[in-house]
Amino acid sequence: MQRIDTIYINGQFVTPHGEEWFDLINPSTEEAIGQVRLADAEDCRQAIAAARAAFPAWSRTTKAERIAALRRMHAAVSSRAAELREALITEYGAPASQAGWMVGFPADAIAASIVALENFEFTETAGTAQVIHSPLGVAGLITPWNSDAGFICNKLATALAAGCTAVIKPSELSAWQTRIVTEALHEAGLPAGVFNIVTGRGDVVGAEITRHPDIAKISFTGSTAVGKQIVRHSAETLKRVTLELGGKSPTVILEDADIATVVPMILQAGFLNSGQACIAGTRILVPRSRLGEFESAIAAAVRQIRSGDPRQTDSDIGPMVSRQQWERVQGYIRLGVEEGASLLAGGEGRPDGLHRGWFVRPTVFTDVRNTMRIAREEIFGPVLVVIPYADDAEAVALANDTSYGLSAVVLGADQQRAMAVARQIESGRVLVNTLAHEPQAPFGGFKQSGIGREMGRWGLAAFLEPKTVLAGC
Length: 473
Ligand code: NAD
Prior knowledge:
This protein is α/β, with parallel strands linked by helices. The chain has two domains: 2-245 and 448-469, Aldehyde Dehydrogenase, Chain A, domain 1 (3-Layer(aba) Sandwich); 250-438, Aldehyde Dehydrogenase, Chain A, domain 2, CATH 3.40.309. 40% of the residues lie in helices and 21% in strands. The chain has a seven-stranded mixed sheet, with helices on both faces. Strands 10-9-8-11-12-20 form a six-stranded mixed sheet, with helices on both faces. The protein has a three-stranded mixed sheet with strand order 1-5-4, covered by helices on one side. Helix 8 (224-234) links the parallel strand 11 and strand 12 (240-244). The radius of gyration is 23 Å and the shape is globular. The N and C termini lie far apart (68 Å). The structure holds nicotinamide-adenine-dinucleotide. Nicotinamide-adenine-dinucleotide binds at residues 142-146, 169, 171, 202-203, 206-207, 210, 221-223, 226, 229-230, 244-247, 278, 378, 380, 406, 450.
């Protein structure tokens, strides 16, 4: 049993002032696996004070000193990969077959921020002026439960690379992963107060970060609904905000696509992270001329997908993170049927043979119109919708007919044609005949998928303010 009874403030593990205990549940078994004592607003204020006190010295460190610190963080986090893997599978239900990239994400994110820092010019000239990119101050970093350790390391490494100090508010649902990563970061030996980690409730600790006048910048990854609250509340002190929010990403299958080749990619993109991924490709746009052929192929392929015990290497999809998330997904499957869509695969309830755990049947709806709620709202589970279109122009129109714009996939035999479609899609990222990721490229959303960008020089610049200096003689 995990008993997590400390938070991390000013370089030390301390007992929180907050007294609430939160149960950690294994979503595969519904059994308690531990408890975490949650921080409260007072703990958060102490963490902010520590980060504020550490800011002047950290903001004056040299690029070389920050790179050295980030390298120590990278080594420390890399050394905890085995523990992190265990926590990801037990606490969060990540399938062992797919846990690899999630285990590597924290260290990879730190490595990417080192590259961005090495290449970043903090001083430029503009006409007769010098432009000095200066760190904003104390950053509040708020992360979701999916890939918790990766988001913590990505945001923290970028903030520190820029010369900011940080207060991190991870999700209470992923306290075990947070503990592993906090211990690793402590071992990296950074100056006290440079980073502080306070696990607590969003409406308590998160809200305090959002309102506190000593927080200059918020970097948030989570739902669009909470992102909007953060903008509202942080407006009072005009904080800079970066928001990485939800999505309803289209996967466009062009008329010349080879169905046998693209179906595995479609399912990989759609069921990524058991469907609990912001970038999951959940709206599949299919040429009407090839709809029947596509429906048969995807139905057959989904029958081969296993949703079950994440420890079994042949499980493709693990459980939903919590009962609440499971019920939400079940509600959307029910809604799809009520809206008149047809089930090609899956449906309500647990997969055959499973009687406990928050497992969902991998589900694909067809006869879907883009106006239906199952086509417009983020479900955050393994539920895909198939929407037919007449020609490339209609495919683009449907792809863009969404309030989101985080990611998109275009699949087709003619690369030029696929690229032409990709260029018209309103999305922070478009993948053409690939599911690859480029950590040096900007990542973020158009429309209600977010504000600003993470990764690369764009991510670094989001923690900096340009200062123009003109000198007379
Ligand atoms: P969430 O919005 O419920 O919570 C995210 C974080 O915000 C948690 O730490 C939570 O405690 C905190 N929070 C909640 N209320 C708050 C408030 N009032 N003030 C400040 N903080 C508050 O999201 P979740 O359920 O943890 O994660 C799933 C969501 O995250 C999905 O919508 C998904 O698309 C999104 N997401 C986006 C990305 C991306 O990069 N764009 C990546 C992963 C997940």
